[in-house]
UniProtKB/TrEMBL annotation:
Taxonomic lineage: Bacteria, Pseudomonadati, Pseudomonadota, Alphaproteobacteria, Rhodobacterales
Tagged with keyword Plastid: no
Source taxon at top rank: Bacteria
Annotated organism of origin: Marivita lacus
Protein name: Membrane protein
Alphabetic keyword roster: Membrane, Transmembrane, Transmembrane helix
Chain ranges passing through the membrane: 21-46, 66-87
Length: 226
């Protein structure tokens, strides 16, 4: 029962219902479509780079008559695994050292090669040089909080010459929505607050500009381990 002072509630109209269904469909379709498009595009890019390097008699397109997307990706994976297997052996390591000694004699090439090698090792190599924990730090000033990734304890000249009484922690502060760019900052250990969330959840939070929390049901609690 409604009183004269209560506004009458109207049921959503037909157009409103269609609009709501459309937006819901976009939310469902967009992630799937974008993922498929991205994978399809990367496969095409790799195929376009690899297949022209493959001799004609080894190209499957010559035998089946159609261009199957993904063949170049498979060839690239097999070739990469083979190179990695050879590089782990004694002969492979000797060849790599010989090739790098030649590169070191080339002024411009050695700078490019050294930079690309360091980036590749940092991104792909399985080593101890990974982010350890997600953390909170006050940046760019006191009272403003930012998410960071603890890299390691500061060492060498940085630790010796920094005017601090305690340990320094190197923290990578990512930017939104691209967490691969950011700032390398050094904070006193007592100013770094470690978070319970893992690196992946913290990265999702940064990428989504704070919209995707690790625990959507209760953001005050860390996400439960699967």
């Amino acid at each position: 029962m409604t009183t004269p002072f209560e506004p009458e509630r109207r049921k959503p109209g037909f157009i409103t219902g269609l609009r709501s269904s459309f937006l819901t469909g976009i939310v469902v379709i967009a992630p799937v479509a974008l993922t498929i498009w991205l994978i399809w595009t990367i496969m095409g890019w790799i195929d376009g780079f690899v297949l022209p390097l493959v001799p004609t008699r080894f190209n499957p397109e010559q035998y089946i008559g159609i261009n199957l997307r993904g063949i170049g990706v498979m060839i690239f994976l097999v070739f990469t695994i083979f190179v990695g297997w050879v590089a782990k052996g004694l002969i492979g390591r000797s060849l790599i050292r010989f090739a790098e000694s030649l590169v070191e004699r080339m002024p411009v090439v050695r700078s490019i090669y050294s930079g690309v090698k360091q980036i590749a090792e940092t991104i792909f190599a399985q080593s101890e040089r990974n982010f350890e924990k997600a953390c909170l730090i006050q940046y760019p000033r006191k009272g403003i909080w930012a998410i960071g990734f603890i890299s390691t304890e500061a060492r060498g000249e940085i630790a010796d010459k920094a005017e601090t009484m305690g340990r320094l922690m190197s923290v990578f502060v990512p930017t939104t929505p691209n967490p691969t760019s950011g700032f390398l900052l050094y904070f006193p250990e007592e100013d770094v607050i470690e978070l319970d969330m893992n690196i992946e959840d913290a990265a999702k939070l940064v990428i989504s500009a704070g919209l995707v929390y690790p625990n959507a049901k209760d953001p005050t609690q860390p996400a439960k381990a699967a």
